[in-house]
Amino acid sequence: MPVGLFRVCLLVITAIVNHPLFFPKENGTVPENTEEIIQKMKEREESLRLEQLRLEQEIADQEATQKALEKAAVVVEESKEEKVRWDMWTALSMVIFLLIELWRQDFQEGNWQDIGGEEDDMAVLGKAFKGVAFPDKAVLGSFYEKRILGTTGDMARMREMVEGFADDLLEALRSVCNRDADMEVEDCMGVGSMYENWRVRKPFVCDLIVPFAPPEPYCFRCQTWCSGDSFPPDEQGYGTIKVCRADEDVMGCICDKTKLGEDMLCLLHSQVSSTRPSSEMEDLLCFKNTQYLDADQVMKWFQIAITKAWNRISHKYEFDLSFSLLDSPGALKIKFKSGKSIAFNLTPVVQYENSDVYFISHFPRTSLAADIPSSTHWFLTFAVYERRFIQLVSKTLPANACHVSCLQILSFLHGKQCSLTGPSGLTNYHLKTVLLHLLQARPSQDWAPEKLEARLQDMLKFLEKCLHEKKLYHFFIGNEHVPAELGFPIIFQRAEPLNLFRPFVLRRDIYRKMVDTFHEMLRNMSALINEYTVHTPLAHTNGIRKE
C-alpha cells in the first residue's frame, strides 16, 4: 500500500514539473523554428525538382544523341549495302553487255555498221555482185591461158632444182651434227601452193618442211588443244611438245606419287635418272627449267646447223646461200652470179604421233603465227593432208577440171588488189580453205572446165558470206566427212570446228580493211583481168580504184 501511494505521488509530481506552462519562453520559439524548417524544406524540394529537371534534360539529350548515332549507323550500313548491291549489278551488267557484244559480233547475222558513217561500202554485203561486171567465159579463158598457164613449167623446173639442193644440204647437215647429242633430221617434204600447182605470183617460193626427232634415249610427247586438257580460246590450233625419256611412262611411275621408305628403291627409276639437270634439257632445245621444246631454241639450232652444212658443201656450187629472214629458221635465198635469185623455206617441224600432222613454229611470209602465245606453243599444220585431199578429189573430177584454175585466178586478183591498197588480213590460205569446202560440197561434174565462170562466182559468194558472218571454219578440224582414204586422225575430226576468222571478231580495224579489200577486188576484177589479157601490157591501171 505505501509503495502504491508513493508511485502515484511521483507520477503527479512529474506531470506538474513537465507541464508547458512552467516553460513559457522556450515554448514560444517552437512555431518560428517550424516555419524556417518548412521554408528550408520547400527550398530543398525546389532545388531537388530543378536538379531532377536538369537530370531528365540530360538524359533526354543523351537519348536523342544515342538515337541520332544509331540512325546514322543504320544509314551508313544501308548505304554500304546499297553500294555493294550497286557494284554487283554494275559488274553483272558489264559482263552481260560484253557477252552480248561478243555474241553479236560472232554469231548474229545482221548489217554491220561502221561508227565512222561509211555505211555505203558495208551495204554491199549481201549485194556484192549487183552492179559488178563479171568477166565472161571467153575473157576468163583467154586470161587464164595467157597470164597463168605459162607459169606451170617454170614451177616444175624450180621445184626440181630446190628439192635436189635441199636434199644435199640436209645430208651435209647430218654429217656435221653429233649423232649422239644433236637432233636427228629426216628427209624434207614439199607443201603449199608450189606443190599443189596453184601458185601464180612471182617470185616463186618453195616451202619445204623437215621433220626432226630427239637423240636416243629421248622422245617427243605431243599435246594438242583438243587432247582433253582445257586450252584458252586464243590457244586453239596450238599444242606443246614435251621432251621425255623413251622408257618413261606417260602417266608417270607410282614412285613419283608415293613416298618410298629409305630402305626401298624403285626398280624402274633411280634417283640419278629422275632428276635431270637444267643444262641437259637446254641442250635438248627446251625452254629454261622446263621439259617443253622451245621454238626459239630450235630456230637457233637449225640456223647454226644449216650454216655449218653449207660451209661443208659450198665449194660444189657456183652460187651463194644466205638467210633472207632472220626471224625464220630456214628462209633461204640462192644468189647466182648473174644476179638472179631463188628463195625457198626449209622449216623444221615435229610429227604428231604417227600421222602427217606436224607442229610448226614459224610461218614465213604469212601472219598465221603473228600471235603465238609463247615459244613453247607450236601451231599445227595440216598441209600434207590438204595436198593429198586435192590430189584425191582431182582423180574423181572431169578432165581439165577448173578447181585449180578458180583458185589461181582468185589468188592472182587478190594479190594484185593488195599491191594497190596494201595487205589485209585475208590470205591465200583463206582462199584455199574456201576451195576445199566447195570441193567437198559440190558434185564432181560441177567442176567441168566449161563451168569456170560459175565456180569462180561460187567461191566469191562463199567468201563474201564468210566475211559477212566472220566465220570461216578450218577444213579438217571438226570435219567428220573427211574421206577415210586420207587416214586423217580421228581426234581432230571430233574436235570443235576452228574458226579461222576468230581473230577478226574483236579487231574491227583489220576486219574493216579485209572487207574493203574484198569489195575493191570485186569492183576492179574486170579491169585487172582485161589489163592482163591484152597482148600489149599497159603501163597504167585505168579504171582501177585505189584507196
TrEMBL record:
<keyword id="KW-1133">Transmembrane helix</keyword>
<protein>
    <recommendedName>
        <fullName>Inositol 1,4,5-trisphosphate receptor-interacting protein</fullName>
    </recommendedName>
</protein>
<feature type="domain" description="Mab-21-like HhH/H2TH-like">
    <location>
        <begin position="404"/>
        <end position="477"/>
    </location>
</feature>
<keyword id="KW-0325">Glycoprotein</keyword>
<keyword id="KW-0175">Coiled coil</keyword>
<dbReference type="InterPro" id="IPR046906">
    <property type="entry name" value="Mab-21_HhH/H2TH-like"/>
</dbReference>
<dbReference type="Pfam" id="PF20266">
    <property type="entry name" value="Mab-21_C"/>
</dbReference>
<feature type="coiled-coil region">
    <location>
        <begin position="38"/>
        <end position="72"/>
    </location>
</feature>
<dbReference type="InterPro" id="IPR026250">
    <property type="entry name" value="ITPRIP-like"/>
</dbReference>
<keyword id="KW-0732">Signal</keyword>
<comment type="similarity">
    <text>Belongs to the ITPRIP family.</text>
</comment>
<keyword id="KW-1003">Cell membrane</keyword>
<dbReference type="InterPro" id="IPR024810">
    <property type="entry name" value="MAB21L/cGLR"/>
</dbReference>
<keyword id="KW-0472">Membrane</keyword>
<dbReference type="GO" id="GO:0004860">
    <property type="term" value="F:protein kinase inhibitor activity"/>
</dbReference>
<keyword id="KW-0812">Transmembrane</keyword>
<keyword id="KW-0539">Nucleus</keyword>
<feature type="signal peptide">
    <location>
        <begin position="1"/>
        <end position="20"/>
    </location>
</feature>
<dbReference type="GO" id="GO:0005640">
    <property type="term" value="C:nuclear outer membrane"/>
</dbReference>
<comment type="function">
    <text>Enhances Ca(2+)-mediated inhibition of inositol 1,4,5-triphosphate receptor (ITPR) Ca(2+) release.</text>
</comment>
<dbReference type="GO" id="GO:0005886">
    <property type="term" value="C:plasma membrane"/>
</dbReference>
